[in-house]
Amino acid sequence: MQICNVLKPEYGPMQNKTLKVLDLSYNNFTGESISEFVNVLETNRTLEYLGLAKNKLTSVSVRPLL
C-alpha cells in the first residue's frame, strides 16, 4: 500500500516528518491491511493519530494495532 510506504522512515527524503494526524476512515480497508499499518506505527514516530473508522475492520483484526 503506497500510503504506508511513504510513512516509513526508510522511504528516504520523501518520508513523513511532519504529518501527525491521518484519517483514513471510509476507505474499505480490511483486516489484511492492518499488518502494513502495524509496520508503519512501529517505525514512524511522527504520526500520533491514525483514524480507521467505518472500514471493514473487526475488533479482532485491529488488535495488533493495540
Structural class: alpha+beta
Inertia-based shape: globular
Nearest-integer average pLDDT = 87
Regions with pLDDT < 50 over 5+ consecutive residues? none
Please state the CA-atom Rg, rounded to the nearest Å: 12 Å
Helix count from the secondary structure assignment: 3
List the domain count as a whole number.
Answer: 1
* Order of strands across the main sheet: 1-2
Order of helices and strands: HEHEH
* Termini gap: 21 Å
The main β sheet shows up as:
2 strands, parallel
**Helix amount, in percent?**
25-40%
Strand content: 5-15%
Q: Count of DSSP E strands?
A: 2
Describe this structure in words.
- The protein has 3 helices and 2 strands; from the N terminus they run αβαβα.
- It is of the alpha+beta class and 66 residues long.
- It has one domain (2-65).
- A two-stranded parallel sheet has the order 1-2.
- Helix 2 (31-43) links the parallel strand 1 (21-23) and strand 2.
- The longest helix is centred in the middle third of the chain and has 13 residues, at 31-43.
- It is globular.
- The mean pLDDT is 87.
Supply database-style keywords.
single chain, about 70 residues, alpha+beta, globular
Nutshell version of this structure?
The chain is of the alpha+beta class and 66 residues long. It has helices at residues 2-7, 31-43, 59-62, and strands at residues 21-23, 49-51.
Summarize the helices and strands and which ones pair or pack.
Elements: H1 2-7, E1 21-23, H2 31-43, E2 49-51, H3 59-62
Parallel strand pairs: 1-2
